[in-house]
């Protein structure tokens, strides 16, 4: 076994990758290893026994000298980092090219060496941390640059957001004037040509507004400023209302619109209904645009995604021109359409599907397309919605009563049959392809509880069925309820006057296609309950109409309009006149406060329509002053409706936070304005 010798110790010390220096009590050099010799360019033999300050410049009175003194006299160890050692030892290394030398970054440890029967010694250990320091400096530089870029990005985003807000406001203000004036123009006496031109101008203005909204939405998404709401809403109603609103245009083109919600098991959910409507409206608009004949079907399902979540899946299929399979993958890219000629023929920005895809992703879902040229398209999107913890009263099943359904469209008939069977009814379905005599046999030979007829069957078939129903002796003892399926665009009377002569028996109902399950259930319930009761045609309207605002609340209502744009003043005053109201006008917030102050004791205003962005004083500050300033204490509860072109995320909440009661976005929807004016005047 080898024994440890001085030679072995020296050899070991000289091979270390750190520097070792040993000094005595008088800080004279006893030893340094090869590492020190290499970096200092000095030999041990020439410097052994010398005061360390003579070997290395600047050692005397340095932090290292003090540390060695403390170690030798007090036995205190020390550690000197490269950062806090202003006078490191003169140790150098060459650069990568070997033509320059540089002082190395040093980390030094100092410790007393206790030697029995001898004077104490001090050990200095030097580590070359140059590479580590450079790495840290590089990382710090990158971090600083990253922080600077982040600050620049934040500034750019703020600028982009401000630009979007201003652009939105500046565009919507004149569009409000155009659409508003066209609305007022349509209410005047016009010739046939003038009314036609006015209608075309309005369609063009609405198209422009749609394109502007697409561009603004795309910009908001790109800037990360589009927020998704999370509120409780009725999912079936939201979907059906959207489809029915779009169906009017489709039916005018002769298209059948079919909606199947039989697999939609959820009622009240948590999500963003306005963005869901936007997605569906965009997809349905494309389907209508690119379909000349046939049908558009919407199939809706809801699957439980988790204990607190629901996966909504919507499939929208059409029988339109279709898309080449090679073009499908690029459809969701910005400013992309399947063919350059598409833009020329059908219009559009190529942003709609991009926005739809990004909205789906923001709502925890996605979208895909399957299509072939000439064979129609099928878009499938899914979203993640939350469970509300609330429920809607489920539909009660009917007894197994026989129903005859005669529909002009097979797919529509199958969808309606599916819904009827879900409610426990026995359905016999016939289509327009069946001979009229066969349909007649079904009526004569079966005791149906309800007969459902499609107004699109054609005059010959409907007249034949009407005659059979009138002549059938069963009608003498039993009134068979008839449900006429009409389109959203046409009333039943336009389709077949002979069938409506059955009204004298009190057994005719109308139901608009595409069918709402809730309305269908209501019609069936009424039909079953009134088989022997006379019911006039129109017991149920073709489509649920919103209640018109009552105009008898106060014909002489005291209204103040605060608006700086002259054209928008005329628009608002004209719309108010259509409702039977007049208003005073203030051109800014300062002017509004003056008028309110003048009238607070004598006929104070009952309602204020407040623009937000105005010179001198904006609507926010004016509202805050009305609510908080003691000078307005007698009128500080006046109802204030924001009527503004500020439509960015958070603008509505900003209005409410300032003290306003309600919010209307420009361009102003006349119907919505009438409803809000009536509502708040009723509270005055």
Automatic annotation (TrEMBL):
<dbReference type="InterPro" id="IPR003661">
    <property type="entry name" value="HisK_dim/P_dom"/>
</dbReference>
<dbReference type="GO" id="GO:0008256">
    <property type="term" value="F:protein histidine pros-kinase activity"/>
</dbReference>
<dbReference type="InterPro" id="IPR036890">
    <property type="entry name" value="HATPase_C_sf"/>
</dbReference>
<protein>
    <recommendedName>
        <fullName>histidine kinase</fullName>
        <ecNumber>2.7.13.3</ecNumber>
    </recommendedName>
</protein>
<feature type="domain" description="Response regulatory">
    <location>
        <begin position="558"/>
        <end position="681"/>
    </location>
</feature>
<feature type="domain" description="Histidine kinase">
    <location>
        <begin position="166"/>
        <end position="387"/>
    </location>
</feature>
<dbReference type="InterPro" id="IPR005467">
    <property type="entry name" value="His_kinase_dom"/>
</dbReference>
<dbReference type="InterPro" id="IPR011006">
    <property type="entry name" value="CheY-like_superfamily"/>
</dbReference>
<dbReference type="InterPro" id="IPR003594">
    <property type="entry name" value="HATPase_dom"/>
</dbReference>
<dbReference type="InterPro" id="IPR001789">
    <property type="entry name" value="Sig_transdc_resp-reg_receiver"/>
</dbReference>
<keyword id="KW-0597">Phosphoprotein</keyword>
<dbReference type="InterPro" id="IPR004358">
    <property type="entry name" value="Sig_transdc_His_kin-like_C"/>
</dbReference>
<dbReference type="Pfam" id="PF02518">
    <property type="entry name" value="HATPase_c"/>
</dbReference>
<dbReference type="Pfam" id="PF00512">
    <property type="entry name" value="HisKA"/>
</dbReference>
<dbReference type="InterPro" id="IPR035965">
    <property type="entry name" value="PAS-like_dom_sf"/>
</dbReference>
<dbReference type="InterPro" id="IPR036097">
    <property type="entry name" value="HisK_dim/P_sf"/>
</dbReference>
<keyword id="KW-0418">Kinase</keyword>
<feature type="modified residue" description="4-aspartylphosphate">
    <location>
        <position position="454"/>
    </location>
</feature>
<feature type="modified residue" description="4-aspartylphosphate">
    <location>
        <position position="611"/>
    </location>
</feature>
<dbReference type="Pfam" id="PF00072">
    <property type="entry name" value="Response_reg"/>
</dbReference>
<keyword id="KW-0808">Transferase</keyword>
<feature type="domain" description="Response regulatory">
    <location>
        <begin position="402"/>
        <end position="528"/>
    </location>
</feature>
<keyword id="KW-0902">Two-component regulatory system</keyword>
